[in-house]
Amino acid sequence: MSVVLQSNSGWVLDSQSLIDRGYARCITWTGHHKSHVKCNFKRQCFDILKSHYDMSGRVDGGHTVMTQKTEKCAKKRKRKHGELNQGEIDAKAFHEKIRSIILEGTKSLVDSAQSLGYLSGETETSKDPLPSQDCRLAALCEMAKELPLVADEEQEWTQSLLTEEGVASHVDLFSQVTENSEAWAAVVPLMGEEYIIPHDTAFLLSDFTRIQPLVQCGRRFDVIVIDPPWENKSVKRSRRYSSLPSSQLKRLPVPLLGSPGCLVVTWVTNRPSHLRFVRDELYPHWGVEVVAEWFWVKVTTSGEFVFPLDSPHKKPYEVLVLGRYRPANDHTSPLQTANVPVEDKRLIVSVPSALHSQKPSLSEVLKLYVGAEAKCLELFARSLQPGWTSWGNEVLKFQHISYFDLEPADTSKAEATEDAAET
């Protein structure tokens, strides 16, 4: 069950189930021979069994209890840095403002989930190491910039991933939107690697300089989810991915991609300056009206915060800013759901992935506000979702076969399901 429960406080999600639903029917080929496989995202990626309390004290009733080691670190930090800077003061004020919402809402949701047997801490753990794949997609996007652009009138902006025989065809991933319109997921060779592409999905592998195919393919979206590569010290130190200055986000062609009334959802780090930028500059620049702030709360498989709630370093939550695209001079009919009110201060509680920057899918949560048949787009995506279009320079990162467990499927059941779908 991908949505474990819903209440007035928000939702509890099973992130792995949300991923796996896109691969209930998966096909692979050996030459022209087709076979069915059972495909699941690796379980160990969601085996978050313990809180990181040893890093900054233990938690008692939602409050951080300073250990001797933590107290020493805190004093050392105070001696080194002196008084809080303005950014730290703002962050502390924001945390105090929402602290009770996070604490009380999470407790309510976790208690309800545990009454259903979820977040009980009883899970089959895997001793296998986390998958580690050297992602070269961003570098390939850089290389693709050297390729000449085709004149607009000559360009086909979309292409099929599969041929009529079902075998992966030769595709240009960098200058065309690639579609898998089949009703099953497929294991396909791309750029010398194997990737698993979910059913009914489309994607474009590019950066800002090659985003034009997404605009030119003529689609208008009812949901746009944005996960920007925000600049911060942690990213610079780890060099996990290239960050982007906030001002560059204004270049995203959201007004050309969103339908009137489109719901725009942006993931924001806990830096107040980023939050202010989204609310006061970015959304007004696009003609998006802020309607709500939600919080993703990260918990262990036992329902504890993954970090102490009052940790001065890392918080167990992230912010989502939701808005509606309200074009000033567009008189086309907006979405039927464009005026559905979006409740403020809702929580999304889930066990996070141990893989860096892998967010939970919002598809099920957002259906209430946009309808089940909404056209959905994710910008700066690192994975694909059924029914969604995705764009980014690492859009296939978590589709690499190394992140999945594959085993032969029950062929008779799979073929019966396939025949039923075709009829």
Report on this model:
The protein has one domain (3-48, 89-419): 3-Layer(aba) Sandwich (Rossmann fold), CATH 3.40.50. The protein contains 10 helices and 19 strands. It is α/β, with parallel strands linked by helices. The protein has a 12-stranded mixed beta sheet with strand order 1-2-16-14-15-13-12-17-18-11-8-7. It is globular. Belongs to the MT-A70-like family. One of its GO terms (cellular component) is nucleus.
Please tag this protein with its features.
Rossmann fold; 10 helices; 5-stranded mixed sheet; 12-stranded mixed sheet; alpha/beta; 423 residues
- In CATH, what is the homologous superfamily? Vaccinia Virus protein VP39
Overall mean pLDDT score? 85
- Going by helix content, strand content and strand pairing, the class is alpha/beta
Order of helices and strands: EEHEEEEHHHEEEEEHEHHEHEEEHEEEH
| Largest beta-sheet details | 12 strands, mixed
CATH fold node name: Rossmann fold
> How many DSSP E strands?
19
- Overall geometry comes to globular
Question: Which strand-content bin applies to the residues?
Answer: 25-35%
Determine the N-to-C terminus distance. Answer: 27 Å
How helical, in percent, are the residues?
Answer: 25-40%
Task: Please work out how many helical segments DSSP would assign.
Answer: 10
| CATH architecture field | 3-Layer(aba) Sandwich
Unreliable stretches (pLDDT < 50, length at least 5) are: 54-76
Order of neighbouring strands in the sheet with most strands: 1-2-16-14-15-13-12-17-18-11-8-7
- Integer tally of domains: 1
InterPro entries: DNA_methylase_N6_adenine_CS, MT-A70-like, SAM-dependent_MTases_sf
Protein name: Methyltransferase 4, N6-adenosine
GO molecular function: nucleic acid binding; RNA methyltransferase activity; site-specific DNA-methyltransferase (adenine-specific) activity
GO biological process, one term: methylation
